[in-house]
Structures are given as structure tokens and as C-alpha cells.
Amino acid sequence: MSTERDAGPRVTTPLALELLVHGVGGTTPQQMLGDPRTVRLAGDDTAGIHRRSCDADAEQHPGRQGDEPVQEAYCWSNLTSGNGSRALWLLLLPFMVTNLAHWMRPPSLRTRLARGYELVVRLLALTLTVLLVAAVCEVTLDIVGWQCAGRAACARDRSWLGFAAAGHHGWWSQPGRRLALAAAAPLTLIAVLWWLSHRTWYAYESQRPATRPGPPPPGTPPLALPGFWYGRRSVARLRTAHTAAGLLTVTTALCVPALSFDRAHGGVVLRAAGWALTAALVALAALATGVVCHADRAETGLDDTPDHRTTRLLLAGSTGTVAAAAVYGAWSRPGWASDGRLPSAQAFSAVTVCQGALVAALAACAVLLHRAPPPDFEDCGVALRGLAGPAVALLGCALGGVLTGGVAQRTADWLDGGRTPGEHGSPLVGPPAVLTWEASVIPAVLALLALGGAALAARLRRREHTLRHEVEQSYPHEEHHASRTRQIARAVARAGLTDSAPMLVAVVCAAAFALGGGAVAGAWAGGGTPVDVAADAPRVLRGPAGAAQSLGSWLVGAGVVALVALGRRAYRDPSARRTVGILWDVGTFWPRAAHPFAPPCYAERAVPDLSWRMASWTQATGGRIIISGHSQGSVLAAAAVWQLDPAVRGRVALLTYGCPLARLYGRWFPAHFGTARLRDLHDDMHIWSNLWRRTDPIGGPVGISSPDAPVDCGPLLDPAAYGRSLAHPLPEPILGHSDFQADPAFAEQRALLLARLPGPKGVPAQGSSGRSSG
């Protein structure tokens, strides 16, 4: 009888584990586990598995827990937060936004067209690197080194520039040598970007997922492929190509002015050296473009292929070329004086036109892909009818262009001592015309955003008014009050504004495209020479145009400062992190498939951590797991379950709450989180429950029906009580996206999931809590 009693609990009450994964903003293990005494079982300070101290040895005492699962907390918040200096990643926001466009590809069976879509995004990302480096070259080489240092009226007020001023007649006073010195700034930027990308690769991309025997079967969802979260080879190739592109941009800025002078006044040797550098520049640029074209991801396996000889040749050749260009430009050229702008100023118009053409090509690919969906595809509100990727890519380009134009114009205004560059009496010509026009359209974009915000506010008020009757019907046996009803209705209406994001993105993109085209047309109309937008405008519009030009440059400077300040506050203040964290965590969830200098992907560490933990624990104990994810944690949980072997997946249940899988990821990333993909995940594991509220602005239902048990549980009543009562003597708050575990439905659904999981040797547990009814 003693043997039977010892064996009985192992069959009817097998050891169970609840793996908690927090969401945006993060929380401490003590808060997740509800106990101040916790221990870390695995991991490090960046991401780790924690338990209550009393549960640290739960595997040695399986009967001690009774019907309750052992709770573990996976804390990953330090993967996306840390010290305040990491807020500087926000300055690379255009890179992150463009990288998102890669993952917004519509689902389709046209694999060649899909690869073409991804290729266009990678080329578009390359132009953003060129634009960033060219912007720094414009500020340091053109405005500071060429224009200000070349004019006594500007240099005499800048003591730090005196040694290189043209009037100083020193060794650095020649234009080519000033440019070579000023090139240290963009070269330092390139080195920092390369170092950041390489360092974060070791922290994220180098984490190897679990290997599986044999190739994946046909039709395997992308997130279930073994190499999806291992982008070592592609990121390395892209990093080399983008670094080379930045170096070649600096080479162009150094080589073109010197060659322009040598064509008219230089000797045969200098002209030959300049043309040789130009030929090497063109060849290396073509090679860098080719490397980007062949940097596609290999997701069907762990690709550890070492760097190809071509990439090493590209990096070495680009480094040597920029060094040769610095020497060539610094060669003594008596009689050379800096006048006007650098002759390479037209490059910004060319980059802007190139980006517009690539965005148009990307839109064409997206339309064709959206018209050829797979047979199981369900268009359940796909954002912008498949054009989300091109729209987001256009936003990335617009952000890059506006920041470039604004910073260049602000620098020129600062060096000009309050005058307008280009006007009579000003010592500076100013930045290229297209950058001035781009800075001048910022007030117009902000005005459009203000109009859009006003329209959303009016829509919110109308929606709030129509919801009041529904709110009162949800609490039928309560004495209703107008203020309380209005409060709840406003919360539901605000939560619904999230679904208006595609329309807002479409309006902003259309405005950005039109205003960007107008900036290029305005620059071309003036022959690229005028920098005073007010002077080029009609007489009636000269006043507003001048104000827009001045206001735009100031707004960009203030915007950069505000962006860094917001980022620092978000890293230090949990409440601010929750406000902006969802957009940041969505952007950094995806691997760096298009831009290697984008912020690193935290999921390449978190997903292998979770999948390794579930696989190793079930293999060691034979127990059952409920992986419980909130908000962004539910996305990580689903991605980790996808990575499990079928045998392990059969012992895992998924509990999600505040889940953005369908509402956010399914709409914007349909190829990876569309309805068909979520149904495949449910069919593979069968045991999934999702809790949601109407007051939640982020989460929602997943929209999957199941014949045996519904996946969606809700909408949960929020607030739990309308007014005061014996059970609720104090006013109940509107929880929205938080505190799902406080709802009684949470414990109920967790018990039901645990009961449906199979026990040892496939024997299902019985009863609502896993206890045998006999």
C-alpha cells in the first residue's frame, strides 16, 4: 500500500511548471512571483530564470506543491533597457523603422517576388546609411571645413577653428587638408556604428538555438524554422557592406572636390590619381551593392558560414580607398580656395530620388504579393491592404531626410551668427537646397499631425458617446451614474484608437511623400543653388516660407534633444517605459534582416532562452508546463513554443493575456502572425487560452475558434464592479492592460489548461485542477 501511495501522486498529480514571461516595461522577479525572497536558477543579470526561495528544490519534492504548479519568472527587461546611454539608440530610429518593413511583407506563394521585396528593403536600408554618413559629411566637411573655415567673417569668431582657417595660412589652411581633418567625424561615426553592431552581435545573434535532426518539413511556419532566430551570417555580411558604403561616402566627399580642382588646374599625375580613385570607388560601390543583394537570411538551418573572401576584400579595399582619398585631397595645391558649396552637394537630391524609386518598387512588389496570397490566407484586417511595409519604409526615409535637413540647417544657422545662410551679408552659403527644403516642410508635417490628432479626438468623443449605453448594459443591476459611465466608456473608446493607427500612418506617409517630392522639385527649380526658401517662394508666401524655414531648423534641434531625453527617461522610469515601450519593443523584437546598424534584436536571446528551458525541464522531469505571457511576453512565449519539437510541444500549454498577437502583429506582420499562422500554432499544441479586455489598448482576442475549447476568454469585465458594494467597498479601478492575474478568470483558465495537459506516459490528468476524481 505504501508503494501505491508513493506512486499515486506521480500519475494523477504530475509535477507542473508555470513559466511567467512579463511584458513591456518589465518588472522584478519579486513582483512577478509575489514574494520578496527569490533566487536565480539560470541566466544572468540581463535575462534569467527566477523562483521563490522555497520552490528552488521543487523537483526533489514533487508532491509538496499539491495541485498548484511551480512558478518561475523569466525576466528579460534588461535586454531592452539599461543605463541612460542606451537612449542614443533612438537616434538610429530610421534604421529600426526600415528594418521593420522587411518583416511586413504580405504572405504569398510567389517566393521569387518575396525575395525581390526583401532585396528592395535591403537596398533601401543601404541608402539610409549613405544618407546618415553624407549628412555628417555635409555638416563637418562642407559647412564647417569648407565654408566657415574658408571665410574670415565666419572663422574669426570661432577660436577652435582658427588654426585651419584660410586666413591663417598654416599647413591646415588648404581646403583639401581641412576636408581631410574634418573627415575624422564621419569616420568616427562609422567606427562606432560598426563596433556597436559587432558588440551587440555577441550578446544576441551569437546565442545558438537548439539544433534539430534533419531538415524542417515543407510548409513549416517561418517562426518554427531552426535558423529564424540566428542571423549571424546575414548580419555580418550586411555590417561589412554598410560599413564599406559609409567609408565610400566619405571617400566621395574627399575625392570629388580635389578632382574638380585638378581637372582645371592640376597636373597629369594628380588627375590620374583622382580618376584612379574614382574607378576604385565605383568598383567598390558595385561590390558593396552586390554583397547587400546576396545577404538574404538562411532560416532553414543554423548558418555558420564564415565571412566570404569578397566581404574581407570589400572592407579592406574601402578602408584603403578612404585613406588614399585623404592623402590625395591633402596634397598641396597652391591657389586652391574654397568657394560656394562642395561640388558633391547634388548627392542628396540623388539619394532622395533613389529612395523614392525604391519605395515605389517596394509598393509594386507588395501589391503583387497581396494579390497572390496562399490558399489558407484570411485577410482579417491586414494593415493598409498589404502596403504597410512600403508605408513604414517611406516613414523611415522621411525621418532620415528630415533629421538630415534639420541638423544641417541648424548647424548653418548657428555658425552664421543669427543670419540666414545665403542671404546678402552672410558668410555662409548654407547646406544644399534640398536639405533646406526638407527642413522647411517640418512645420507642415506637424500641422498635418495636429489635424490628424484633432480628428482622432473628435472620433473619440463620438465613440465614447455611443458606448455609454453598452457600458450600462454590462452592469445591469447597478445604479448608474453619468460620470462613472463616461469614465468606463472613455477607457473603451481610447483602447479602440489603436485600430486607427493604419489610417494615421497612411495619412502621414502620403503627406511625407508629397512634401518630399516638393522639396526635391523646389531644389531643382532653383538649380540647386538657392538656400533661402522664402526668396524662391511667391511674394505672397515669402513670409510664411521664411518662418517655416527658421522654425523647421529649430524644431529638428529641439526634436533630437527631446528624443534623447525621452529615451533616457524611458530607460529609467517604468511608467515612461510602458508609454513608449510597446513601439520600441515591437521594433527590436525582429532580427536585423535589413539594416545591421539598427538596435539589436532581444528575441534572439529571449526565444532560445525560453525554448531551451522548456525542452530541458520536460526532458529532465517529464512534467508539464504552462507558459504564461503578458503583452509582449505573450509574443515571446508563442515564438518559443513554435521552436519546440512536437514531442515537447505536446506537454506545453499557452496562456496569454493582454496579447497583441492578432491585433498588432497579425495586422502588421501577416506573413508571420496572420490568422493562418496562429491557427497552425494552435493546431500543433491544442491547448491555448487567451484572456482579453475591451479596455486594453494593446491586447485583444486572437480570433481562433476551436471545437473542443475556445481559445479566447473574454471580454473580461473591467472594472470588476461598477460602484461600491459589500464585495467591493472601494471603487474598482479600470485595469486596461494590467493586472490580469487579479481576475478570477486567470486562475480558472490556468487550472483548465493544466487539467488538459497529459500526465506521465500520455495519461491525461482529470478534474479541473489535475487531481484524479476517483
UniProtKB/TrEMBL annotation:
It comes from the Bacteria. Keywords: Membrane, Transmembrane, Transmembrane helix. The chain crosses the membrane at residues 116-136, 179-196, 241-260, 272-293, 313-331, 347-370, 382-403, 441-460, 504-526, 546-567. The keyword Transmembrane helix applies. The keyword Membrane applies. This is Integral membrane protein. It comes from Actinacidiphila acidipaludis.
